[in-house]
Design goal:
308 residues; alpha+beta; Uridine Diphospho-n-acetylenolpyruvylglucosamine Reductase, domain 2; Uridine Diphospho-n-acetylenolpyruvylglucosamine Reductase, domain 3; Uridine Diphospho-n-acetylenolpyruvylglucosamine Reductase, domain 1; 3 domains; six-stranded antiparallel beta sheet; 7 helices; 17 strands; binds flavin-adenine dinucleotide
Amino acid sequence: MNSIESALGMLSEHFPGDVNVLQLKELTAWRTGGPAVSITVTSAGMLADLLGLTFSEGIPWFILGLGSNVLASDAGCTEVVIRLSGGLARTAWHRSEKGWDLKIGGGVHLPSLSGAACSRGASGLAFAIGIPGTLGGAVFMNAGAYGNSIADSLKSVTVLDYRGSVSTVPTRECCFGYRSSRFQEERTIITGVEMSLEPGDPALLRSEGKRILSLRREKFPLQYPNAGSVFKKPDEGISPGRLIEDAGLKGRAVGGAEVSRRHANFIINTGKATSDDIAELIGIVRESVLACSGVLLEEEIRYLGRRN
Ligand SMILES: Cc1cc2nc3c(=O)[nH]c(=O)nc-3n(C[C@H](O)[C@H](O)[C@H](O)COP(=O)(O)OP(=O)(O)OC[C@H]3O[C@@H](n4cnc5c(N)ncnc54)[C@H](O)[C@@H]3O)c2cc1C
């Protein structure tokens, strides 16, 4: 029995009905990636049990949000893919004197939260309306746009560590930076956050949300599967899209993967791309930009599974 089969057997025995073998292409925004054992976790207690089991049995795992920033191997992965749902994907709203206090599950859909905040007149999340991930993924990445980031409104982040122990980390200890957080250096799962939002005018906030969505529709190649910006903005401050365009790479393709002609920092799946195509194209872009401008680009996207 291989390690995937043994993990599948063990998890199915402990969590009957919650474990599946899925294709990662069904779980990632690029729509690529091979088979994986996946478990959907619906409460903090269940997650603590799962992490206790994976720790004691030496089963590797990967926490996946909506896969909007992940390149998953065509060969699949040996890690058990954990996804948050049910009680870990809910938001509790509390009206306070100063505005709104929220308790938000790590599995909450960020655009829906942003839309709900605008409609209720809670300001500070309109920027996130077009970021197609979960709260947990957004905190892990410190996702942001238009000069705002998810860290701005957070009070604290609750995590479970690889043994299933809970802790709550105040925002000042989260080491947030540009697309970075301390959680990228840890084996933890973000199960929830506390956030404070100031009051705002619902009509203005809704129209701000609409404006942002229409800007994004114009700017980004949203009709094709993609994972948003592939590369981070380098320290030199020049946008990666500009550097990639200047290297003459717009439209450059490997198999079904193509550097978007609309926004050069996006790689699109034109229909039949594999993760290997995307990874090869990322390598070509990085090398060509280095040769052309001397800037070494760093990926924003995260990898799951074997890398060639
Ligand atoms: C069309 C498009 C537009 C985008 N625009 C933006 C943008 O404007 N700004 C921006 O910052 N990003 C953007 N992104 C990238 C992406 O949506 C964000 O990084 C998002 O926050 C990722 O969330 P996710 O749930 O999909 O995480 P995933 O892609 O599933 O995972 C990303 C990383 O987070 C980790 N992770 C996920 N959930 C948890 C958790 N609960 N606990 C601990 N770690 C976790 C994963 O292990 C992985 O390493 C865009 C992507 C797309 C496809």
